[in-house]
Write a structure and sequence with these properties.
- By secondary structure, the chain is of the alpha/beta class.
- The chain has 16 helices and 12 strands.
- The strands form 4 sheets. A 4-stranded mixed β-sheet has the order 1-4-5-12, sandwiched between helices.
- Helix 1 runs parallel beside helix 3 and helix 12 packs across helix 13.
- The structure holds uracil (URA).
- Uracil binds next to helix 9.
- The site of uracil has 8 residues, from helix 9.
Length: about 450
């Protein structure tokens, strides 16, 4: 088959018309994303065709393999520790990777972590980490390998060397409403994870109104598809299905979430963030043979926090990646927004719902995420002090604090947020966060 524009259009047309693509066609598409031989509009058109028409498990497996092969795989064979990573399918206020990676490393695991940026309405670990002054997420492969060998953990993004096709496709999906699609999510997540040199992987597959999969059954389908790809490549995979109805924690926004992550590492993080962090960490420790039982794993993770070892490891990561390690002591070293505006409750009652999607849209309006691939994120803006489901609020009490670059956007975010927080006369117990563990 020839390459060039006609070939490109023929591939797009075949998927548009509902056909399964051949291995050669899928590899041609991924090559086009990597070497720039496909234009962004052609890549986007095929992404939309896949979103609409789907892919067979066979096509998804080829897509994932092609993304892995678009770069090199990390060689961590000289790292004697068990190498395990965690990846979330994306949520609102989901900062779990930031406290979890240093906790797991402090417990004796090696954590080579390739994360993503904000995607759709969800936040991204890389954008959060880059709110730390100086922090570098684009480490060369050798430096990534060396850092994991030296301090047991590195937190980076896709680079020109590691899963470069995902770097391109991820940015396009973010801006073209082609995120919520099982084959594309599988290719993106597993393309990165199979490039990391890991032995095992723990997945946090989210469902609910702030997740890409609204229904738990769809999240389970995604978890099984991700696990099948990992297992076929010889990796141990476990997946947790976790609820994403209200944002995780009390902050949404990059620097604000780093500050909350530091709180977690200091033992004063919000209960829901700690619950998910510990649940994922337990599976990592069990997989790595660091603990024999779940309570033992939990005790080790708690000990890494109470002893200060996890916080010290976080500061070590930040320093190794050229960030300002003083943020581990004092969030005052993180960027701060000039405008702070409270959202005041007009009535008294119990919090019955905080719509994660609404909060995400408010954060996006403030500039915490992107609407175009080339947009710059404002690291300082977002929402803090968010109330949680089940809490009581007095009339005139604060429902959340808005951090904005200017007054207009603060007011716009306030209008959006007003409609996202529901109060009522009776206390609702929050739904369980961890719905299911798959593969344990
Ligand atoms: N995380 C990723 O890395 N990719 C996706 O597609 C969704 C979540």
């Amino acid at each position: 088959m020839t390459s060039g524009p006609l070939f490109t259009q023929a591939i797009i047309a075949r998927k548009r018309d509902g056909h399964a693509l051949s291995e050669e066609e899928i590899r041609g598409f991924v090559r086009g994303a990597t070497d720039g031989s496909w234009a962004d509009y052609q890549l986007s058109a095929l992404l939309m065709a896949v979103w609409l028409r789907g892919m067979t498990p066979q096509e998804t497996a080829v897509l994932t393999d092609a993304i892995v092969r678009s770069g090199s795989a990390a060689d961590l064979s000289r790292v004697p520790r068990y190498k395990v990573d965690k990846h979330s399918t994306g949520g609102v206020g989901d900062k779990v990777s930031i406290p979890l990676a240093p906790m797991a490393a402090a417990c004796g695991l090696a954590v080579p972590m390739i994360s993503g940026r904000a995607l759709g309405h969800t936040g991204g670990t890389l954008d959060k980490l880059e709110s730390i002054p100086g922090f570098r997420t684009a480490l060369p492969l050798r430096e990534f390998e060396e850092q994991v060998a030296r301090i047991g953990v590195a937190l980076i993004g896709q680079t020109a060397e590691l899963a470069p096709a995902d770097r391109k496709l991820y940015a396009l999906r973010d801006a073209t409403a082609t995120v919520e699609c099982i084959p594309l999510i599988c290719g993106s997540i597993m393309g990165k994870k199979l490039s990391e040199g890991i032995d095992g992987l723990v997945l946090d597959v989210k469902f609910g109104r702030g997740a890409f999969m609204r229904e738990k059954a769809r999240a389970r389908e995604l978890a099984l598809a991700l696990s099948a790809i990992g297992t076929a490549s010889g990796k141990s995979v476990r997946a947790l299905l976790t609820a994403m109805e209200e944002p995780l924690g009390r902050t949404v926004g990059n620097a604000l979430e780093v500050a909350e992550s530091v709180d977690c590492l200091k033992g004063r993080g919000p209960a829901d963030v700690m619950e998910v962090t510990y649940a994922l960490g337990q599976q990592m420790l069990l997989m790595g043979g660091i603990a024999r039982t779940a309570p033992e794993a939990r005790a080790q993770l708690e000990q890494s926090v109470s002893s200060g070892a996890a916080l010290a490891k976080f500061a070590e990561i930040v320093a190794a990646q050229d960030g300002d390690p003083r943020v581990a002591d004092d969030p005052g070293f993180l960027p701060r927004a000039p405008i702070r505006l409270p959202l005041v409750s007009e009535s008294a009652g119990f919090v019955r719902g905080v719509d994660a999607m609404g909060v995400a849209l408010a954060a996006l309006r403030l500039g915490a995420g992107r609407t175009r691939a080339e947009d710059r994120i404002d690291p300082a803006v977002g929402v803090s002090a968010l109330v949680k489901v089940g809490e009581t609020v007095a009339r005139g009490g604060t429902l959340c604090m808005i951090h904005a670059a200017d007054r207009t956007r603060a007011e716009e975010a306030r209008t959006i947020l007003k409609a996202t927080i529901e109060l009522g006369p009776e206390r609702l117990a929050p739904a369980p966060l961890i719905a299911e563990v798959i593969g344990a």
